[in-house]
Amino acid sequence: MAAESTSDSSSNLRIIVQKNPSESQLSELGIKSWPKWGCSPGKYQLKFDARQTCYLLRGRVKVYPKNSSEVVEFGAGDLVIIPKGLSCTWDVSVAVDKHYKFDSSSPSSSSSGS
Questions:
Q1: Separation of alpha carbons 71 and 62, rounded Å
Q2: Which of 8, 10, 66, 73 is the most exposed place for a label (fewest CB within 10 A)?
Q3: How confident is the model at residue 109, as a pLDDT?
């Protein structure tokens, strides 16, 4: 039985973690000009109303997406894409310092017709 993932369930809200992106990719994205955000160790309930791309300068995080048994871990040096609409708990074990950018809510032209 083929499980088609066409449903709009939260299981489609996948966090993408890219380990050690290249310097050229980081400068292409313009990460150093993005705003910064930090938090101390602890647990945080977060809801993302827009897709966020972030680059961790330091820290260690376990993310527990709501209604999912999946755990996503990332830390310093990782480039992370968090999908729009994700509700999750961040379990921060090492204080986080990151650059971040929210995607503007304009429709993406690159994923049309799929």
A1: 7
A2: 8
A3: 45
Range of the domain at 31: 16-102
Whole-number pLDDT of residue 39 = 97
Residues 65 and 68: their CA atoms lie apart, in Å, by 6
Q: How many domains does the structure of the chain reveal?
A: 1
The two structure tokens encoding residue 38: 């930090």
We report the CATH number of the domain holding residue 43 as 2.60.120.10
What pLDDT does 104 receive? Answer: 73
The alpha helices in the chain, defined as continuous H runs, are 23-29
Low-confidence residues in the chain, pLDDT < 50:
2-10, 108-114
Count CB atoms within 10 A of the CB of residue 110.
Answer: 5
